[in-house]
Write a structure and sequence with these properties.
Elements: H1 56-106, H2 109-130, H3 143-170, H4 192-224, E1 235-236, E2 239-240, H5 242-272, E3 279-287, E4 297-307, E5 310-313, E6 317-318, H6 319-324, H7 334-340, H8 361-372, E7 382-387, H9 388-398, E8 401-403, E9 407-409, E10 413-414, E11 419-420, H10 421-431, E12 437-438, E13 446-448, H11 453-472, H12 479-491, E14 495-499, H13 502-511, E15 523-531, E16 542-551, E17 556-566, E18 579-588, E19 592-597, E20 601-602, E21 606-608, E22 611-620, E23 625-637, E24 641-647, E25 655-661, E26 664-670, E27 674-679
Parallel strand pairs: 3-7, 15-24, 16-25
Antiparallel strand pairs: 1-2, 3-4, 4-5, 4-6, 7-14, 8-9, 10-11, 12-13, 15-18, 16-17, 17-23, 18-22, 19-23, 20-22, 21-22, 24-27, 25-26
């Protein structure tokens, strides 16, 4: 068979027209150049190419890709619409919630009620909108954020339900806490005493509602515990993000804890207030300007009766009067013998006035109450300890008061001591003419004392009665400020309780007004100082605390604790003198001391109250500074979270603290016990 020849084709577009075949310059006829279109495999350029038939597989892939593309477009459009609906509703909810917050700031019960109902409806609408995207919580990358939003909405619902309960609880007492628009009591609106009586009558109605409130707050806390701030950026578009979330979660946890811990105290209040049976309390006055472990030197006492909520104090007496009839049998702590001296130079038995040596108030009072029974103080239901800051907080609200036979007292700062006038007067009555001189031959006997020594102890009773009468006689307008002053004094440990009844004691411990050193799963710090004969130097001494926390590769933790003491005032030999200070630093049990610098003397670490203690002694002089640096290793290892509890010593004013944890820093004033949490990367 002959080979099949492919025809050569001419491209008409490439042929020259006849008119152009003549070379005008030479007159010769030109032969046109013919371009051939070659078959496949040739080296010449092709002018056209036959279409290759598409395979079924390729068609299927294209169809699939096209379908996926269309689906993605539809998905993105629909999801975008759903997200926009959520965003739009969230903005509406935010606006309504802002109105509720504004009503709260106005302290108007009526507006708060309306605001809660409007916010409930708006949150409900938001929840319905959110259902459209809630299925995305199962997807990678954004699933965690979607889940967080769902938990936040649930928490908001429970929070609003809790808000309803709060309004129901506080409405009868609206004027007491400074709110307007509530249902006022039919009687008892003129004075604090009247309102107190009204509160006492209505306590039985409040207790069941408090239980409901606790249930709701627990649900709020449970929902929010599922939100992890670590998944959020620290900042976005120049705005703080992660820290705002962390602060919000901390605020909710603090509020929830306050409500949960307050319920047992509310249930115990009929007992404490002597509703069915009178209560008898031993009231101790601790001088925080002469700091001791539980808040101050025990300077005076009185016996008080509480009957149907009415506090009836008796005459105040000097603590030294009790010691006159007391035979000490308990061995004195070594620092008393070594540094306090005085009566301990001859006898190593501790006196009643010094029995508050344990930093745990309940432990100290167990011992104290057992010993005062030997001097005929018996059948008391508990002990209440107060310091001078309670007096200052109350006088800040009620203003200057008069005390018959002693003059006027106020919180005006006087130049004699650069302190409140009431503090200056109290100290003047005791020490204006010099120190107390003890007998070397007869332990416990005073050879010489200032002329006004007895007056200071006697004045406390009349002063307390006057403050109490003025407080209960305050008009309705000042009741909220009084409520705040009392709560501040309780939370900052200027008022402490110890109860003989175990259940009631448990309730005050839970609420944090028992001065106990608490158990804690995590890191722990309590710094306890004792003035061992430094006059009233704590009136001027300030304190700063710095903690540097280092997490090693093996997850072990090392800490450097720096405590700086300063006395910026001049020596006067009366209030301000050299401060002999015994410091005890309570840390987690099993902590290993690496170094302890700055103390003049220190002892080996030991265990006490379920903690390990680093202790030492130093003297702080007027115009002086002492810096203690303690390095130690914790007995625990951290995983994803580092937790720390700092417990404040009773009697101390607010203390500046700084915590350094990696790149994070926290600066704050410690006014009450405080818990911290840091994420470990």
């Amino acid at each position: 068979m002959e080979p099949k020849l492919k025809p050569i084709t001419f491209s008409e577009s490439k042929l020259e027209s006849p008119a152009n075949l003549m070379d005008k310059s030479s007159g010769t006829i030109l032969v046109p150049k013919i371009k051939l279109i070659e078959s496949e495999g040739g080296n010449r350029q092709k002018t056209s190419q036959p279409k290759i038939p598409m395979t079924k597989r390729k068609k299927r892939i294209i169809k699939i890709l096209s379908g996926v593309g269309v689906f993605l477009v539809i998905f993105l459009v629909v999801t975008g619409i759903l997200f926009y609906r959520v965003y739009f509703q969230a903005m509406k909810t935010r606006k309504v919630a802002e109105n509720l917050v504004a009503a709260g700031k106005e302290q108007n019960i009526g507006k708060i009620k309306t605001g809660i109902e409007e916010t409930k409806k708006s949150v409900g609408d938001l929840k319905n909108s959110y259902k459209g995207i809630s299925w995305l919580k199962f997807t990678p990358f954004i699933g965690g954020f979607i889940s967080d939003g769902e938990h936040a909405i649930n928490a908001a619902n429970y929070g609003l339900e809790a808000g309803d309960t709060v309004v129901q609880i506080i409405e009868p007492y609206a004027d007491i806490i400074g709110f307007d628009g509530g249902d006022q009591a039919v009687s008892g609106q003129e004075t604090a005493q009247d309102r107190l009586e009204f509160v006492i009558k209505t306590i039985p109605d409040v207790i069941p509602r408090a239980g409901v409130l606790v249930e709701k707050t627990i649900k709020v806390k449970t929902e929010l515990e599922n939100i992890d701030p670590a998944r959020y950026p620290e900042t976005l578009a120049g705005h703080e993000v992660r820290s705002v979330i962390e602060k919000g979660l901390d605020a909710v946890e603090t509020g929830s804890k306050l409500i949960e811990n307050g319920k047992p105290l509310l249930e115990a209040s009929p007992y404490l207030l002597g509703i069915k049976n009178d209560r008898k309390y031993l009231v101790l006055f601790q001088n925080d300007k002469e700091l001791r472990p539980t808040g101050g030197f025990i300077t005076a006492y009185t016996l008080a009766t509480v009957r149907n909520g009415k506090f009836e104090p008796g005459a105040s007496s000097d603590i030294y009067d009790l010691d006159k009839g007391y035979k000490p049998i308990i061995t004195a702590p070594d620092p008393f013998v070594k540094y306090l001296k005085g009566p301990y130079s001859l006898s190593k038995r501790v006196w009643l006035r010094d029995l508050n040596w344990s930093p745990d108030f309940s432990e100290s009072m167990k011992v104290f109450l057992g010993e005062v029974e030997k001097v005929n103080i018996k059948n008391v239901d508990g002990i209440i300890a107060v310091d001078t800051q309670l007096l200052v907080n109350l006088l800040d609200v009620i203003g200057p008061i008069g005390v018959s036979g002693y003059g006027e007292f106020s919180t005006k700062i006087v130049p004699e001591c650069e302190c409140p006038q009431v503090i200056y007067e109290l100290e003047s009555f005791a020490d204006v003419e010099g120190p107390i001189v003890w007998s070397e031959n007869e332990p416990g006997k005073i050879v010489f004392a200032p002329a006004n020594y007895d007056n200071r102890k006697k004045i406390i009773g009349p002063l307390m009665n006057s403050v109490l009468a003025n407080t209960l006689g305050q008009p309705k307008e000042k009741i909220p400020a009084l409520f705040e002053a009392i709560f501040k004094s309780l939370s900052e440990k200027h008022v402490l309780f110890y109860l003989v009844d175990k259940n009631t004691q448990k309730s005050v411990e839970t609420f944090g007004i028992a001065g106990t050193l608490d158990e804690f799963e995590g890191d722990y710090l309590h710094i306890n100082d004792a003035n061992l004969g430094g006059r009233k130097s704590n009136l001027y001494v300030t304190q700063e605390v710095n903690q540097e926390i280092k997490v090693n590769k093996d997850k072990s933790i090392e800490k450097t604790l720096t405590i700086t003491y300063k006395n910026p005032e001049d020596y006067d030999g009366w209030l301000n003198s050299v401060l002999p200070n015994w410091v005890r630093i309570y840390v987690p049990k099993g902590s290993q001391l690496i170094s302890f610098d700055g103390a003049e003397e220190k002892i080996d670490p030991y265990d006490d109250l379920g903690k390990t203690v680093f202790a030492g002694f130093f003297k702080l002089r007027p115009k002086g500074v002492v810096k203690l640096t303690v390095r130690y290793k914790l007995p625990l290892k951290t995983s994803n979270e580092y937790k720390l509890l700092i417990q404040k010593q009773p009697g101390k004013d607010k203390i500046l603290h700084e915590i350094s944890f990696g790149k994070k820093k926290e600066d704050f004033y410690l006014e009450a016990d405080k818990e911290f949490k840091f994420k470990v990367k």
